Amino acid sequence: MIDVHFLSPPRRWPLRLLGALRRRLRTSELWLIALSVVVGTAAGLLAVFQSRIAHGLQSALYHIGEADHLSAVGRIDPRSALWLPVGGLALGLFTWAVRRRRTTGLVDVVEANALHGGVLSLADSLIVCVQTMLSNGVGASVGLEAAYAQAGGAAASFAGGRLKLRRRDMRVLVGAGAGAAIGAAFGAPLTGAFYAFEIVIGSYTPSAIAPVAAACLASVLVSKGVGGVPYSIEIKAQHAPDALAYLLYAGLGLVCALVGVVIMRLVALGERAIRRSPIPVAIRPAIGGALLGALAVVTPQTLSAGHGALHLDLAVGMPLVLLALVFLMKISASVVSLGFGFRGGLFFASLFLGSLLGQIYAGGLDLTPLAEKLSPENAALVGMGALAVAIVGGPLTMSFLVLETTGDFGVAAAALAAALIASTVVRERFGYSFSTWRLHLRGETIRSARDIGWVRSLTAGRMMRPDPQTAPAATSVADFRERFPLGSASRVLLLDDTSRYAGVLVTADAYAATVEPETAVNTLAISRDLTLSPAMNIEDVMRVFETSGTDELAVVDEERRVLGLLAEAYVVRRYATELERQHLDLYGEGKD
Prior knowledge:
Helices cover about 60% and strands about 5% of the residues. With about 600 residues, it is mainly α. Among the domains are: about 15-225, Orthogonal Bundle (Clc chloride channel); about 455-580, CBS-domain, CATH 3.10.580. A 3-stranded mixed sheet has the order 1-2-3, with no helix packed on it. A two-stranded antiparallel ribbon has the order 4-5. A hairpin with a 5-residue loop joins strand 2 and strand 3. It is elongated, with a radius of gyration of 29 Å.
């Protein structure tokens, strides 16, 4: 610990300034908003920086113009397509080198906010960003949103860590940083704000509205100020939908939900199959790149996130058969990209796929008497939002994206209706978004970014009483009565000859009139085979108490050596206290 009294004046004032700033941030929401503006500025700059690197790499490899998009080029020369396996090999070697030095997986913003109180490693974030930029830069069918959100969240986590923010403030700031980066990418502050609420923070907290909104506004303004080109979706909405059109769009939402679940399962199956294969990690992306190169020669629309192709297909008015073919090939490219180890997300790709699905849906209705009810443009916008919700989550996020894109409240309302149906069906029948589904495959149980880290931190080992009364199991009742008079202990843990757990004895049972004094106390023991492990979290502990019907249980290690005793009454009281604290934090009323 540094003693500031022995520091020279030039070195002492930064520590004093930092301490004063920490105190301000803990007592004033205005200071947290100011910090959010700084974080939003950093997130916007990082988003522009990463976009330029990825697009610059695409320009150098595929000879496209600064304003062009890789997925919208006319054709890909087979020789240029070789950059996909070459880039895949570079990514594979980088990933292999990273794995050799690490024993744990990389933590993204959703996992950090759900399990770790918003704490993100700068090293983890740098690795994720490099992998994502390289993957997108060589043309793999992945978006940059993972890199954007990771960089924005990491900047927020770094600032919050240096200032020692409270857990709830750290989570809000990380959500603000990630949302600000997404807002800067689209030039849409409302989209970024609701991305933060729905995807990263996991709830709409009143205390978070101002910091998140300030960060997103700052990021959009800064990115435009430095010349950043947002992913504008320039689709003009047509006639406002009527009541029947709303019903048809609801049907599109249902279709998007089913297709979204299929896509997520296909990605999971692809990843599982490649992981179980004998293909070394270092060359998996190279093989995947070769497959993507073959698809790219057929149609470049399978490359990158598909932003350019989204506008191209609507402008050209492609036939229904070609739309379906591109749709299937884009899904295949996304499955191959993620399955073979390219890094990125499905946010941007799901927007393109959703626009294709919307046009296919509208084209199918053209074969029925309802041909005039849905325009391809409106259907593309609604499908874009609904499929993105089915895969990524966030119905309000995608609805505001449609609104900020078109400025048309009628189409935005139709997109919201379809998005809510898609979200409900996916939640009921599948239960995960793409990010939480992949965490589920790794053994995690989270279904959103809602803070459950406190549940995992409250373990039996932390809550137990570490000094329980114990006695040898072979002790006679007479000796036990002499050692433990009534009122001295309600329960005593019994140990066998090897000092291992042998059961629990309720003290009152040893004083029953029917018990002979010569009887060994182990004959009166209960819960002989029912124990708690120190790693059990509070929810698991409560479940054991509920199913067993007992009041107190021993906490033992793997060798059944007693570590402590835990009472159900204390666990329930602690759980209620933590729930109340979480509720107060939700409304910004929690105390330090």
